[in-house]
Amino acid sequence: xxxxxxxxxxxxxxxxxxxLAIICYQLMCFIDxxxxxINHYDSAVRIxxxxxxxxxxxxxxxxxxxxxxxx
Length: 71
Fold this sequence. Notes:
Oligomer: single chain
Pfam families: Cornichon
Number of domains: 1
Helix content: over 70%
Radius of gyration: 16 Å
Number of helices: 2
Structural class: mainly alpha
InterPro entries: Cornichon
Largest sheet: none
Keywords: Membrane, Transmembrane, Transmembrane helix
Membrane topology: Multi-pass membrane protein
Distance between the termini: 14 Å
Main location: membrane
């Protein structure tokens, strides 16, 4: 039981770190756009590549939260 709890915590932790990395990447793209290092079309392409993985990670968090409330 303790191993399963630890494994669940580690998976959630790594998902959270990856979500923070995606958000930091999006912020860096917005900063590049603000400083005019990149045009808005290229910035949109870069940001759109990480939107779906971000939504998937948030959906996994939602499902884990709903599952943990049942117990």
